[in-house]
Amino acid sequence: MSTVSEVPRPPLSDELLQRMDAYWRATNYLSVGQIYLLANPLLREPLQLAHVKPRLLGHWGTTPGLNFIYTHLNRIINERDLDLLFLAGPGHGGPAVVANTWLEGTYSETWPNVPQDEEGMARLFKQFSFPGGVPSHVAPQTPGSIHEGGELGYALSHAYGAVFDNPDLIVACVVGDGEAETGPLATSWHSNKFLNPVTDGAVLPILHLNGYKIAGPTVLARIGDEELAALMRGYGHEPIFVESDDPPAAHRLLAAAFDKAFDAIAQIQQAARQRGDVTRPHWPMIVLRTPKGWTGPKTVDGQKTEGSWRSHQVPLANIGKPGHLALLEGWMRSYRPEELFDEFGRPKPEIASLAPRGERRMSANPRSNGGGRVRELRVPDFESHAVEVPAPGQVDAEATRVMGAFLSEVMRVNMPTHNFRLFGPDETASNRWSDVFDVTSRTWLAETIPDDVQLARDGRVMEILSEHTCQGWLEGYLLTGRHGFMSCYEAFIHIIDSMFNQHAKWLKIIREIPWRRPLPSLNYLLTSHVWRQDHNGFSHQDPGFIDYAVNKKADTVRVYLPPDANTLLAVTDHVLRTWNRINIIVAGKQPQAQWLDMDAAIRHCADGIGIWPWASNDEGGEPDVVMACAGDVPTLETIAAVDLLRAWLPDLRVRVVNVVDLMTLEPADRHPHGLSDADFDALFTTSRPVIFAHHSYPTLIHKLTYRRTNHSNFHVHGFIEEGTTTTPFDMTVLNRLDRYHLCEAVIDHVPGLAQRAAHIRQTLHDRLAEHRRYVDEYGDDMPEIRDWRWSGHGVPAAGA
User: Fold this and answer.
1) Which residue in 589, 713, 786, 790 has its CB near the most CB atoms, within 10 A?
2) CA 370, CA 366: separation in Å to the nearest integer?
3) What is the 3-class SS of 252-305, one letter each residue?
4) Which residues form the Xylulose 5-phosphate/Fructose 6-phosphate phosphoketolase C-terminal domain (predicted)?
């Protein structure tokens, strides 16, 4: 086991130790003030109830430990001139990080209404967890932050995402012992197997064990150093243990541990960069044990508080209780604020001088603000990858394979700038992006054997079978100003629902902060989707992620359902050029009919929605029915249904409307891409039936269109939670999305048609029965389904 006792001499002079301890006391004082005080920030008069907030919110337990770490990292930056970023994994560490950013001046630079003086300190205190103020997390409002910590488990994956392709950057990532119990965090320890010490920066994990969660002990705090060291070594780290509840001793121990850890990082990088050492290193990490609620009240009402779960949130929550106000005042005065701040409330020079200068301050690091500059992605000509479509529906292609060829070119042209990576849970090849392996490989620094293919230390395809880790890496990469794309099976993108949610909230807030730079968009390809998961069955059949996503703010989320390869290319080109968005593309990977040539696809995607004239026969008049579709399989079944209708009911006027950009269905006053009411009515009419075949759950279309004039005539077919291991067409039949059920819906809803189309209805029932028998006997779809092509005029059916 590695311990700091191996360090031959203490690195701190007594004078520096005393100044650092004063700096730590100042951050602790500022943190307690944020939790409690409404006024009297420097305690210039005896504390009264009127000086205390009416609602006491926040978390003290983790805060002094975070302040302790931050103080020591400042010393390291000053002595070594390091490019260092700080990530606070503990969810409610906001008071600590805000305190440090104010003390080193960045907070007042970004928020001039909170200056470094007594008035600014009062505002700093009042705004914390206060209406109209700042939350208790390390939110986007906090300079230097790329990680809020509102939801636990993602700090380490964010940290690694930030250092990929940032060779000079080191991220000091504090992992709380509660956070260490989460599944995403447990997997993210493996990120060091993907870290190239030549081209990437480094992450220093600091496992902060204060022993308790809200009301009970934490696992890693109770397993002992030997077992914990074995666990961390198994993850590929060399742990350095620090434990003390005595501040002077703890200062010396942590300083020695940091010196050892940063020496080790420098040695690893030097060996790789100067000597070409390709051995996968065991990176250093710190295990820091400190009391929970350190330096706070030892006991409250006779019960142990410091060093127990009782200090997790607000140790003195009932300040009106006899003796509690005096206890709070004594606690705050124990930090000796008169030694820390001058008569104007400014940090004294001997305190302020310990903070790094300029962009070396962790709160002013440009990496934490979109990389400090807008780095455009080079996007090559996507039209050169177009599928030749001589006529609608006459050729097949694998849409995502075509997309993969385009992304390989994107990868190639951006290789010199190290500005683009692909992410996904072991599905790059499965999702038909294999062409990227002609340009790069999968990133891999663990062991290899001769049979391995497409693995390389400098690979730029990030694969690990953890959606959480892939998402966290990608977020960290984007938050520091680079670009990326993630592919995932549609059903399992739900694994990162809450991570998506947190990132969407981050994007919403940074738009409201003037000093926050725009971020490259978070782009998803969801494939292996619900309608073509026939071999995996019901477990893999869930299209609901887009239903969840559209609940986010309209200026954040976009959902695209391109019906073929050329529209997918046009959409991909578009999303790669966007900023501050979450773009969700859903597209199938199986061979499927292609509808639009490239020129038509570009025009269609530019509008996001439109009539397909070649499939419609209502030109010059109002249609009898509108056949709408969104998604590749719904489009196929809609066009096939129209083909049948034109053969069986040639006088029926049918309009086909295809939707690529799902958000066009919303009103223009609710979404930037939404159609005006006039444009919507022009497409869907104000009174005619609309049979809408939709990729996801039918309720989503109703939700998006409920305010439209003709909403009562919308009849939506989509996934109705029917699935199994079956054929592709049978999946649509089970969910009433198939061509026969769509034709039946037309007969049911076009006025007067049911009476004169009784024989056609019978034919539809017969076809469905025949389908059922054929599938059950042969395990495949009928030839008329498998071999169907759009004819443009329909093929009369027997008996029709």
Assistant:
1) 589
2) 7
3) HHHHHHHHHHHHHHHHHHHHHHHCCCCCCCCEEEEEEECCCCCCCCCEECCEEC
4) 589-790
Q: What are the phi and psi torsion angles at 338 (to 5°)?
A: -65, -20
Instruction: Give yes or no: residues 156 and 287 share one domain.
Output: yes
| Domain-located, residue 626 | yes
- One domain, residues 517 and 647: no
Q: Do residue 710 and residue 580 come from a single domain?
A: no
Q: Give domain status of residue 53, yes or no.
A: no
Helix ranges restricted to H, 370-514: 399-414, 467-479, 497-510
Contacts of 606 (CB under 8 A, 6+ apart): 570
The verdict on 170 and 294 lying in the same domain is yes
Predicted local distance difference test score (pLDDT) of residue 725: 87
Distance of alpha carbon 137 from alpha carbon 558, whole angstroms: 27
Give the contacts of 664 (CB within 8 A, at least 6 positions apart).
Answer: 607, 608, 609, 673, 674, 675
pLDDT score for 2:
39
Last residue of a domain, one of 592, 626, 655: 592
Domain at 754, CATH number: 3.40.50.920
Give the pair of three-digit tokens for residue 166.
């940032």
Q: Tokens for 282?
A: 């065991």
Q: Are residues 291 and 409 in the same domain?
A: no
Say how many domains are in the chain.
3
The residues near 13 (Cβ < 8 Å, ≥ 6 apart) are none
| Listed residue (464, 524, 462) closest to 493, CA to CA | 524
Same domain assignment for residues 165 and 107: yes
| DSSP structure class, residue 661 | B
Residues in the chain: 800
Q: What is the DSSP string of 163-219?
A: HTT-TTEEEEEEEETTGGGSHHHHHHGGGGGG--TTTS-EEEEEEEE-SBSSSSB-S
Does the global pTM surpass 0.85?
Answer: yes
Q: Distance between CA atoms of 341 and 327, rounded to whole angstroms?
A: 22
Q: What is the pLDDT of residues 721-774, one digit of tens each?
A: 888 888 999 999 999 999 999 999 999 999 999 989 999 999 999 999 999 999
Contact 155, 87 (CB under 8 A): yes
Shared domain check, 445 and 510: yes
> In this structure, is the dihedral angle defined by the CA atoms of residues 52, 53, 54 and 59, taken in order, positive or negative?
negative
Residue with tokens 């006899």: 322
**H or E segment to which residue 658 belongs:** strand 654-659
CA distance 680 to 705: 10
Token pair for 641: 């249904």
Torsion sign, CA atoms 333, 339, 344, 345: negative
Produce one character per residue of 456-471: b if its CB has 16 or more CB atoms within 10 Å, e if not. Answer: bbebbbbbbebbbbbb
pLDDT at 91 (0 to 100): 73
Instruction: Give CA–CA dist 712/702, Å, rounded.
Output: 9
CA–CA dist 221, 212 (Å, integer) = 8
**Do both 268 and 210 map to the same domain?**
yes
pLDDT of residue 332: 97
With a cut of 70, which residues of the chain have pLDDT below it? 1-11, 534, 793-800
- Please name every residue paired with 456 in a beta bridge, in sequence order, or none if there are none: 443
**Which structural domain range is residue 528 located in?**
393-592
Identify which of 89, 68, 27, 67 has the alpha carbon closest to the alpha carbon of residue 218: 89
CA-closest candidate to residue 95, choices 131, 140, 57, 69? 57
User: According to the model, what pLDDT value does residue 528 have?
Assistant: 84
Q: Which residues contact 349 (CB under 8 A, 6 or more apart)?
A: none
Strand partners, 613: none
Last residue of a domain, one of 295, 314, 333: 314
Any domain includes 588: yes
Give yes or no for a contact between 64 and 295, defined as CB atoms under 8 angstroms apart.
yes
Element (H, E) at 84: strand 83-88
